[in-house]
Write a structure and sequence with these properties.
This protein is α+β, with helices and mostly antiparallel strands. It has one domain: Aspartate Aminotransferase, domain 1, CATH 3.90.1150. 44% of the residues lie in helices and 24% in strands.
């Protein structure tokens, strides 16, 4: 993807990648949307984002991996199930040469949706 080209939609973002990466990004998009169908899709921080009572998850395409950004809580909660992946504080890297781990992506996204709904509920109670 050309860095100076700023996508305004997730479709724009995905279309800037080679076909094989587009396919994986579309698959990733479907996984997170199936879990959080009421989330709004948008571009935030220059990458695809699902928004549900705040930023839910972000994802992005790279030369050798798909970056998944569920925030630190999403990683900490599932760290034992992520041992085969490169991790940092808020990032999981899924290599492009391996199938996406649908179950773990789904579980992390569902967990984040619960977290975001709880935060909103707590704010309304105050």
């Amino acid at each position: 993807m050309i860095k100076n080209d700023k996508p305004t939609t997730i479709d724009d973002y995905i279309s800037a990648f080679p076909d094989e990466v587009q396919h994986v990004l579309q698959e990733f998009r479907k996984i997170v949307n199936d879990v959080a169908p009421d989330a709004e899709e948008k571009i935030s921080y220059g990458i695809p984002t699902l928004f549900l009572n705040g930023n839910l998850v972000h994802f992005g395409g790279y030369k050798n991996h798909i970056g998944f950004y569920p925030g630190p809580g999403g990683i900490t909660e599932f760290k034992d199930q992520l041992s085969g992946y490169e991790l940092s504080k808020g990032t999981i890297k899924f290599p492009l040469n391996k199938p996406l781990p649908v179950e773990i992506i789904s579980r992390i996204t569902a967990y984040r949706a619960i977290e975001n709904r709880k935060k909103t509920s707590l704010k309304k109670q105050k």
